[in-house]
Amino acid sequence: LLPAEAEALVQALQGIELRDIGGQGWLRQHEYVEKLNMHGILSASAGQEQLLTELLVSHAKIPVLIGELISVEIWKHKVFPVLCRLEDFKPRSTFPIYVVLHHESSIINLLETVFFYKEICESAEDSILDLIDYCHRKLTLLAARNTKAQAAVPVLPQELQKQAETMEFEISLKALSVLRFITDQVKSLPLSALTRMLNTHNLPCLLVELVEHCPWSCWEAGKLKKFENGMWHMVPPEDQVKMTKLDGQVWLALLNLLLSPECQCKYRFDGFNKSQLLKLRAFLTDVLIDQLPNLVEMQRFLSYLAVTEPAPPKKDLILEQVPVIWDHILKKNSGKWEAIAKHQVKHAFSPTEEELKLQARRWAQTYSLDMMEALAPDKPRCRVCGVEAAKRCSRCRNEWYCTRACQVQHWQKHKPACNLIA
């Protein structure tokens, strides 16, 4: 984007009512977020993301994005289950639903790109408490992943349900990165934000759970797989002890929350918390410390913690802030979930064929092929056999194939999407 285009898109971001999710105005805002998200990723890869950061700060749009994030989360858990129970909910296409689910992913991705900067964290102001709560909810889902406790959006067609579950997992990983960037700024956070992270949500113990269960790695048929760069990879034996970026985010967040003087003064090192934190000693191997030398300080701290009883935190009388966005949306819409669902069936989730085509054209412009190829970390793969591909469908230019034979084999499945896009 040109600087003027980026500024126009940032200025256009605004809070949208819960009942308008999925409507035309909301879809336009989703396009703005998508364009800014892609612009942010490309700028970050070129080391030039300062412009976007400055625009979001100067126009005070970080609280707006956090508000959008919370709105979609509440919609998923309050409105959508009611929507699915309505007799007249027979969507012509799952496309509008997928867009709403994807919106949350786009916003958290944009926040992950820009929250590296201290100015962004400070510009969030009081809404940082809502973002901390949001990240806590996502990390709790992530920690419960191995117990199958988490659920994506219920009552969806099987293919969309799979996509929703994958998206929920990736959103949780992005929330982990955002939380780590927030912990980098403990010195400039409001007092209430620290109290919320350390005592209300007990994030250090939640992070210990993530170290223990490591939901982004798993064993399959005797081989180790790890999730990196948006996909699962088979890990060769020589790389199995190598720390991933996600492992690094957890350890850096723990370093920030346990070793900074501000946090040590506020955290309760009681019997339970102490026993949980001491579990980390088993993971602090020489190989791990070689990859992240700062963990030597963590090792020393845990050794000291094992033989001492830290002083309890001072019980100062303070007025504590509470998150406002979540409570405001719930209070404003409480008891109206069915009315909102009926409104959205009529105005958002039963599009005509013409409306679908129009929206498909708008999305084709948003996701230009040149832009998508620039964003892709790897070379395209054949849709059928998965090997590296050099040919694509000449009609819609959206699917890749290694040979003509694979394209012919996939045509019956690809034909409906190809017709719509073309």
UniProtKB/TrEMBL annotation:
Subcellular localization: Apical cell membrane; Cytoplasm, Cytoskeleton, Microtubule organizing center, Centrosome, Centriolar satellite; Dynein axonemal particle
Signal peptide: none
Domain of life: Eukaryota
Pfam families according to UniProt: zf-MYND
GO BP term, example: outer dynein arm assembly
GO annotations of cellular component type: apical plasma membrane; centriolar satellite; dynein axonemal particle
Location (main, coarse): membrane
Domain MYND-type: 382-418
InterPro entries: ZMYND10, Znf_MYND
Gene Ontology molecular function: any one: zinc ion binding
Keywords in alphabetical order: Cell membrane, Cytoplasm, Cytoskeleton, Membrane, Metal-binding, Zinc, Zinc-finger
Purpose: Plays a role in axonemal structure organization and motility. Involved in axonemal pre-assembly of inner and outer dynein arms (IDA and ODA, respectively) for proper axoneme building for cilia motility. May act by indirectly regulating transcription of dynein proteins.
PANTHER family attached to this UniProt entry: ZINC FINGER MYND DOMAIN CONTAINING PROTEIN 10, ZINC FINGER MYND DOMAIN-CONTAINING PROTEIN 10
Family assignment from sequence similarity: Belongs to the ZMYND10 family.
Protein name: Zinc finger MYND domain-containing protein 10
Taxon lineage: Eukaryota, Metazoa, Chordata, Craniata, Vertebrata
Gene name as annotated: Zmynd10
